[in-house]
């Protein structure tokens, strides 16, 4: 139970709305869990294929079929700093499994693309769809039905949500998510942002910009700002899918390896072969989903999760809506200031008390469900702790989270929060529905009522800026960027440009059916506008000069044009051909046709018995 009745009421309405789909989901996974893996009943030829490459010890155990076999789903590649540390995890996991009399096999790999590399490039149009590809790739790996549990190695933007969808599709299997941790602190994020703005203004050259970027992104591990990747890690911990304290330990350290070994042993302990069977589909219930949303608000997390959490919940038969997310935002205060919501990075957040402190504060205030199932085998209170190396450097030990924040500028208490409500807000009006991240936007910039300047690509905005055409107050409307139009790329390259204009004293805002990065910053941005322009949403009828109102305080996004005038206008139309070919985009035509709207998770899957509705 939650002490806060408002949280309970929202959880209850999610439970009631989801009842039929959730019951059908649980029936499916429980039936499969009772049947167990087919490893012990496979034909001899099938089973021999499954362990042909194993060593004698592993092969003997797999032949017997009475010891657990752990599947590893990995997002390793050595181009991504966040995923490069996973190169050595499989052998660490296999050896740990052998040490406890079990086996582990890499069941499959999933793609892992970096939005940081593809920002503003054609490849970004595959980014959102990669989430659903990752879910399908995980399913392919697990479809051999050789496994009693699985561990998932992934960190970044679409990777963790895709892995969660895959894990919940195989919800009869226990699932533990194993992170790689953030890179050590490099160039401060505010200094990097300042250099980006100077470059946008033409005041420094590419050599200076590249040096700043290289000093910021400088080694193995996750980028240290609080974008989608680190929001993912927060979610996995607060939803009970990590080991306690695992999220923000740096790569290639003794504690990082100890936590990986601990996760391996725990995954093997919670299979149906033992007495603590903990299927993933039972861990992720309505309470865990609400806990995830609460954590997102309390930390000022990524806007991308207004889609990802909806899609993740749907994979477990749970119907989460933008209204649920918005209502929770009004209840949960902002307790963390991590860039772009402050100057600190996630290493500073962890040093200030990190996840253990945050969870303890929220639990004590009654804002989290404590009585949840977790992979650790207890309720959520066990996560109000700090992980340390055990005695003589062996294993992991835990101590209670610090009683006070080690830096109140980064991590606040419930008694003195940074803001009364969460960092994400839903907007609505005649333009439809949208999302805004307010935690990094100063109060004086949260209301913009100004003429529209309409663009069909972020490059058009940048060209207009370089030509000196973006004068006065205005709302940049960047449309035909939704999931059906071109895969809904992030428009993060607009941040420095619009930031320069705001710093000059202009009132500026962004309205788009596309996405911004999880690092959405100081410029007010109404994103994920639904219905999107491609489907004839009102955003497709905006003309240059139309008055647009964005009010993040009241939650309004409106086009201030007479309804009769709008009804007489034909929706704009753009040539989609440039978005249909090159960089693999032709392979994703079916995704663009099948994808649902942003408020239903921008998913290609028919989940919860719902067919994606485009209008």
From TrEMBL:
InterPro entries: 6-phosphgluc_deHydtase, Dihydro-acid_dehy_C, DiOHA_6PGluconate_deHydtase_CS, ILV_EDD_C, ILV_EDD_N, IlvD/EDD_N
Pfam families from the UniProt entry: ILV_EDD_C (PF24877), ILVD_EDD_N (PF00920)
Organism of provenance: Aureimonas fodinaquatilis
Gene Ontology MF annotations: 4 iron, 4 sulfur cluster binding; metal ion binding; phosphogluconate dehydratase activity
Domain Dihydroxy-acid/6-phosphogluconate dehydratase N-terminal as annotated: residue spans: 68-381
Cofactor note: Binds 1 [4Fe-4S] cluster.
Single GO BP term: Entner-Doudoroff pathway through 6-phosphogluconate
PROSITE patterns given in the database record: ILVD_EDD_1, ILVD_EDD_2
Listed EC numbers: 4.2.1.12
Keywords: 4Fe-4S, Carbohydrate metabolism, Gluconate utilization, Iron, Iron-sulfur, Lyase, Metal-binding
Residues that hold [4Fe-4S] cluster according to the record: 156, 223
Top-level taxon in the UniProt lineage: Bacteria
Dihydroxy-acid/6-phosphogluconate dehydratase C-terminal domain mapped to chain residues: 410-602
Gene that this sequence comes from: edd
Protein name (record): Phosphogluconate dehydratase
Cofactor(s) of this protein: [4Fe-4S] cluster
Enzyme class (EC, first level): lyase
Family (UniProt): Belongs to the IlvD/Edd family.
Pathway in which this enzyme or protein is active: Carbohydrate metabolism; Entner-Doudoroff pathway
Catalysis performed (reactions): 6-phospho-D-gluconate = 2-dehydro-3-deoxy-6-phospho-D-gluconate + H2O
An example Gene Ontology CC term for this record: cytosol
Known role: Catalyzes the dehydration of 6-phospho-D-gluconate to 2-dehydro-3-deoxy-6-phospho-D-gluconate.
């Amino acid at each position: 139970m939650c002490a806060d009745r408002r949280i309970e009421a929202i959880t209850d309405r999610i439970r009631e709305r989801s009842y039929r789909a959730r019951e059908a989901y649980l029936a499916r996974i429980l039936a499969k869990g009772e049947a167990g893996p087919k490893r012990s009943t496979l034909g001899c030829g099938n089973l021999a294929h499954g362990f042909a490459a194993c060593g004698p010890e592993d092969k003997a155990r797999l032949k017997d079929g009475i010891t657990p076999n752990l599947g590893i789903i990995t997002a390793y590649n050595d181009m991504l700093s966040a995923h490069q540390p996973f190169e050595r995890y499989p052998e660490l996991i296999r050896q740990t499994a052998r040490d406890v009399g079990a086996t582990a096999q890499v069941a499959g790999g999933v793609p892992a693309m970096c939005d940081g590399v593809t920002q503003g490039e054609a490849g970004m149009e595959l980014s959102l769809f990669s989430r659903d590809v990752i879910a399908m790739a995980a399913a392919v790996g697990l479809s051999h039905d050789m496994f009693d549990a699985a561990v998932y190695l992934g960190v970044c933007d679409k990777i963790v949500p895709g892995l969660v969808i895959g894990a919940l599709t195989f919800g009869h299997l226990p699932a533990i998510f194993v992170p790689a941790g953030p890179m050590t602190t490099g160039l401060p994020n505010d200094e990097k942002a300042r250099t980006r703005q100077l470059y946008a203004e033409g005041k420094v050259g590419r050599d200076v910009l590249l040096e700043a970027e290289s000093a910021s992104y400088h080694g193995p591990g996750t980028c240290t700002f609080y974008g989608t990747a680190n929001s993912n890690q927060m979610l996995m911990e607060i939803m009970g899918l990590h080991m306690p304290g695992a999220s923000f330990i740096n790569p290639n350290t003794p504690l990082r390896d100890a936590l990986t070994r601990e996760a391996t042993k725990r995954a093997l302990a919670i299979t149906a072969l033992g007495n603590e069977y903990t299927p993933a589909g039972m861990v992720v219930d309505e309470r865990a989903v609400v806990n995830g949303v609460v954590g997102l608000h309390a930390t000022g997390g990524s806007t991308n999760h207004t889609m990802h959490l909806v899609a993740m919940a749907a994979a477990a038969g749970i119907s989460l809506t933008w209204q649920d997310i918005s209502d929770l935002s009004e209840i949960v205060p902002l307790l963390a200031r991590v860039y772009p919501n402050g100057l600190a990075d996630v290493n500073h957040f962890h040093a200030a008390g990190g996840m253990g402190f945050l969870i303890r504060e929220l639990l004590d205030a009654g804002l989290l469900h404590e009585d949840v199932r977790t992979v650790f085998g207890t309720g959520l209170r066990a996560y109000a702790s700090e992980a340390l190396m055990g005695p003589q450097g062996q294993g992991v030990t835990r101590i209670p989270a610090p009683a006070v924040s080690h830096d109140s500028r980064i991590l606040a208490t419930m008694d003195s929060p940074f803001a009364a409500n969460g960092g994400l807000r839903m907007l609505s009006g005649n333009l439809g529905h949208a999302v805004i991240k307010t935690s990094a936007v100063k109060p004086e910039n949260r209301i913009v009522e100004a003429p529209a300047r309409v663009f069909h690509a972020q490059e058009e905005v940048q060209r207009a800026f370089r030509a000196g055409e973006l004068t006065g107050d205005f709302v940049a409307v960047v449309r035909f960027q939704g999931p059906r139009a071109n895969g809904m790329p992030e428009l993060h390259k607009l941040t420095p440009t619009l930031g320069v204009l705001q710093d000059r004293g202009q009132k500026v805002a962004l309205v788009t059916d596309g996405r911004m990065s999880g690092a959405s910053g100081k410029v007010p941005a109404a994103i994920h506008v639904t219905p999107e322009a491609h489907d004839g949403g009102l955003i497709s009828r905006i003309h240059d000069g139309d008055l647009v109102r964005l009010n993040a305080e009241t939650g309004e996004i409106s086009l201030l044009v007479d309804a009769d005038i709008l009804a007489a206008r034909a929706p704009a139309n753009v040539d989609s051909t440039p978005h249909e070919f090159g960089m693999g985009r032709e392979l994703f035509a079916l995704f663009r046709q099948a994808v649902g709207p942003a408020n239903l998770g921008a998913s290609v899957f028919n989940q919860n018995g719902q067919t994606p509705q485009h209008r």
